[in-house]
Design brief:
The protein has 3 helices and 6 strands, in the order βαββαβββα. The chain is an alpha+beta fold and 114 residues long. The longest helix has 11 residues.
């Protein structure tokens, strides 16, 4: 089961989270999400636990608990949503919209050309 952990301190390390969750069972992976430009932690991450009962026990035991001075948010991770690539999704990129302006319609000219 993939578990979301939020409200983490920015100086938290993956090994510290692994140790925290290992008290509830086997941990397959720990991933702290970092800013792609600065490399600084974004304050959340994910833990993968293969055993459902152990994962549920970890969620129940750690949600709202203090970790390094902050109360963690721990719950089942939602499936990742598809993100549209802003460069290949088509559509408007801002700027002049040629659909709004008509040159042949006199009624539009009286309203400033739009």
């Amino acid at each position: 089961m993939n578990i979301y952990i939020g409200n983490l301190p920015f100086n938290a390390a993956e090994d510290e989270l692994r140790e925290l969750f290992a008290a509830f069972g086997q941990v397959d992976s720990v991933s702290l999400i970092k800013d792609k430009f600065t490399g600084q932690s974004r304050g959340f991450g994910f833990v993968e636990m293969p055993n459902l009962k152990e994962a549920q026990a970890a969620i129940a035991g750690l949600n709202g608990k203090e970790f390094m001075g902050r109360n963690m948010t721990v719950n089942p991770a939602r499936p990742r949503e598809e993100r549209k690539d802003s460069y290949s999704s088509g559509g408007s990129r801002g700027g002049y919209d040629n659909k709004r302006r008509t040159t042949g319609n006199k009624s539009n000219r009286s309203r400033g050309g739009y």
